Amino acid sequence: MANPPTGTLTFLFTDIEGSTKMWERSPKAMQRALSRHDEILSEATEKRGGYVFKTVGDAFCCAFLTTPDALEAALEAQRALLGEEWEGTGSIRVRMALHTGAAEEREGDYFGPPLNRVARLLSAAHGGQVLLSLPAQELVRDQLPAGTSLRDLGEHRLKDLFRPERVFQLVSPDLPSEFPPLRTLEAYRNNLPLQPTPLVGREKEVSEVCDLLRQDETRLLTLTGPGGIGKTRVALQAAADLLEDFPEGTFFAPLATLTEAELLLPAVVETLEVMETAERPLDESLKDYLSERRLLLVLDNFEQVLGAAPTVTELLSAAPGLKVLATSRAPLGLYGEHEFPVPPLSMPDLKRPPPLERLTQYEAVGLFLERARALKPDFSITNESAPAVAEICVRLDGLPLAIELAAARIRMLPPKALLARLDNRLKLLTGGARDLPVRQRTLRGTIEWSYDLLEESEKSLFARLSVFSGGRTLGAIEAVCDKEGDLPVDTFDGVSSLLEKSLLRQEEGAGGEPRFVILETIHEFARGKLQDSGEAEEIKRAHAEYFLVLAEEANQGLKGANQLEWLERLEAEHDNMRAALSWALEHKEAEEALRLGGALSWFWLMRGHYSEGRRWLEGALAMDRRGAPEVRAMAQVGVGALAQEQGDFDRAEETCEEGLELLAHEGREASEAKLYLLICLGWVISSREDPERAIQLFEESLALSRGLRDTWGLGGSLLGLATAFHYRGDHLRATELFEKSIDHFREQGDKQGLANCLNNLGMVVYSQGDLERAGKLTEEAVALFRELGARGDISLVLYNLGWIALLQNDLGKAAQIFRESLAPAWDLGLNREVQSALEGFACLAGAQGEAERAAKLWGAAQALHEAKGIPRDTDFLAEADARISVVRSGMGEQAWQEAWRKGRAMAIEEAVSYALEGEEEASG
């Protein structure tokens, strides 16, 4: 079958019984045997129209459109395998299983509960045996191959712990028919409880837990994580997969209802059904029972009896064959304990959402879909609902319990409506199944369960930690949560305890400094506790003050050799900066908002947060016009620079002029704010094609920077002056100033300034006809901007590089680079770069012989130029006009005008899509 089948399919899984020992005994013979085994299975599958979608070692995974075809393939393969002469290995016995169900196909592989079900059915079989599930049997029972029948083996509990499966065995005169009992749960000593729903995802975690427990050195393994993360389900499935490793049994002891550490031993004794006697203490009877047994004991919800942890050590010491798998919101804290933090389910990246067909590859989305369909069988994820479903899963932190509770609302609330109500998720996510423990019927109840385990001092720290947004460092926690020295617990100890109890998670931050994060569902609960404490406003003020100091320190750091480190730190703290700004604006703290916004301006500029930065700054400027002039002027520098980058030259010029007038009125003629306003205004005027005035402004800023001994302002003035001379056509003077600027920025370690110099010098060199050197300079600038993550600057410099490729007639490279330039420019709202890129695409289309496309793109670019009043790029203007003139002449005026008008009529987003999609088709 050429293409993977879709819809409701029958899956045939196979593997060789005892293959590991066969490989150890005769590897060369086994290699030959495996090659022949693969030929037999492949031929049988292909002959019956099957599709082999995965092979893992000696295991085959095949999909068939019909169950009769799958059964015929299994029968033919078994006959061929039995009739083969296996030299040097002895007989090769292959077990097989068939199950029918609807699974999701992605890139030639399949996913979903039917795959887990058939895998568990296969694990129950013996070599030479062919098993069928009830759904597969129902579809084949009236179309059995001649001479065959199906033997009803009854209901069995498979190792997936889901509902029992009625199992059937294929019987044929030329196949073995008698086998030992199936390797199902009934074949092993255990008390593992069946689960009401299939386990979705978690294959990786279950496999890792099993691998750890198979290692001799792992005697105690604790699965940790917050309530609702799925610790119990992972532990149960791992225990089921390990049944064959523990011949004396695998036992599950639930501890959630216990309230005293002394109750642990009686609970374990009851689980193992150990006989109690009046003559011997309970612990001695238990140790005696365990001493000679190889056994796995699962202790669930151990956080209820943490004080009994030493008892576990005693049991392990007395019983060499015992292994313990515990689940707990906090580790047991025992010597030799191995900890396995259970992560949230995998989630899509909302910034780069996957296409619809790949969305359910994420475990969180798959779980939502599975549980929603259980309640509403016709539920499906569509192009319209996909974004809402993805955001629901992300906002619920990939927490299985939260996702299941959300999916339970799908009968009444479609995904978009459900998402709209998630702002108060703790009230919304109630109503879990009645047979769940009370604490798991609501999300609040699950979190409250963990909260109640805290000491009062830890509860205070937990509440205060909620003031942070997006994470916090230990230094920030100490400064904000214990500013007055009144926190009733040592900060380090308190954080360590909350980490252990799974209410905090640790991640690596910028520069390797650990960051501590709280799942948003838990964060909402903590915010409520902070509000109830009566100290919310005091803690929020301390938070805002701390991040204002950090932002002002970072603002200085961004202007030197540690630029990248400060950029990464501010990116990590951006959510906290937003929270501080929100608090300042809400409380009319105008000066704090202006200082914070002004300090963040350079970060926003470098990392492409143009629109957001302008919103914060404009809001602060509008709040109070009577604040400190220097503070206000610095905020105006930010507005001017961000507006200029977006091509909003009117607002940029206006705000810079306002700032200069304010400082002049206050008599602040030699201030840092004035210096930066002059530089910003100089760039605006350069962009407006008035190089003479720009030169005057930069010469004034250069003199002022020298007077103030401001090295960053000096570099910016030299760079601006060089660019203005370039725009005036004085290439000799521009080159001289660029080279001086390059030396300055290299000395200062300022990669941002250096990259700007290299890019602009590249344009001077290009104008002198040296394309090769221009390309090298521009590529060096791109590399530096990429290192800094300066998305807007990358877009601009890639546009220049695309033109250089176009001029060198490397059309494929030009197309790729223009795409890389236009996409981020559009995302960031950089109208100037969007306009330039559309012109570049038009010229590229002309070079590719696509005249109509060139005319449309040119029309779209001109419409944007006129609508926004954005000056055209001067470096490639003459070349672009000349190329388009040739296209226009070749088309004829009527055809040109018709296509050109269509381009002008396009909305900007339509023109961008037309440019990007057309080039992708051309390159594909």
CATH architecture level-2 label of the largest domain: 2-Layer Sandwich
Head-to-tail CA distance between termini: 26 Å
Widest sheet, order of strands: 2-3-1-4-7-9-8
How many helices in DSSP terms? 41
What value does the average pLDDT take? 89
Describe this structure in words.
It is a single chain. With 924 residues, the protein is α/β, with parallel strands linked by helices. It has seven domains: 8-183, Alpha-Beta Plaits (2-Layer Sandwich); 203-341, P-loop containing nucleotide triphosphate hydrolases (Rossmann fold, 3-Layer(aba) Sandwich); 356-445; 455-533, Winged helix-like DNA-binding domain superfamily/Winged helix DNA-binding domain (Arc Repressor Mutant, subunit A), CATH 1.10.10.10; 535-688, Tetratricopeptide repeat domain (Serine Threonine Protein Phosphatase 5, Tetratricopeptide repeat), CATH 1.25.40.10; 698-789, Tetratricopeptide repeat domain (Serine Threonine Protein Phosphatase 5, Tetratricopeptide repeat); 807-923, no CATH class. It has 41 helices and 17 strands. It has a seven-stranded mixed sheet, sandwiched between helices. A five-stranded parallel sheet has the order 11-12-13-10-14, sandwiched between helices. Strands 15-17-16 form a three-stranded antiparallel sheet. Helix 37 (831-847) crosses helix 39 and helix 38 (851-868) crosses helix 40. It starts with 7 loop residues before the first strand and ends with a helix.
